[in-house]
Amino acid sequence: xxxxxxxxxxxxxxxPAAGRGMETRLGAVERILKAGNCAVTLLxxxxxxxxxxxxxxxxxxxxxxxxxxxxxxxxMEAINVLAHVxxxxxxxxxxxxxxVALDLGLVVEAxxxxxxxxxxRTKQFCAARVNNRLFAFTAGxxxx
Length: 144
Known about the structure:
Layout: E1 9-14, H1 23-35, E2 39-44, H2 48-54, E3 65-70, H3 72-82, E4 89-93, H4 99-103, H5 110-119, E5 128-130, E6 133-135
Parallel strand pairs: 1-2, 1-3, 3-4
Antiparallel strand pairs: 5-6
């Protein structure tokens, strides 16, 4: 591959408040992707409305992959905002619990995560909807 050729355009949406000390995983994945000739753009998610505004004019071809770096809350926020375009999503677990990432087998080393993104390996998951909100792992009613 020519060193000037971009292999993938990747947007990484990250939650700076997610997890404790997990930003090193995000930094490592970003460095590996850039070394793999990917064009990487970081977007800090400060609120659900911030993402809604950002993706208002989103076109399906803007990025090859959208990576969500955060925990379960960041992932839920992202799938609700992005459901209308169904992009390829990557999950970089930097949250405290990372239930979705654990279920998908994605709580792994940065090198493995970057390899999954670079190689284009995907898994399909089904989201459910309650009260017009998507969720991917659990819903609670009343005291839970």
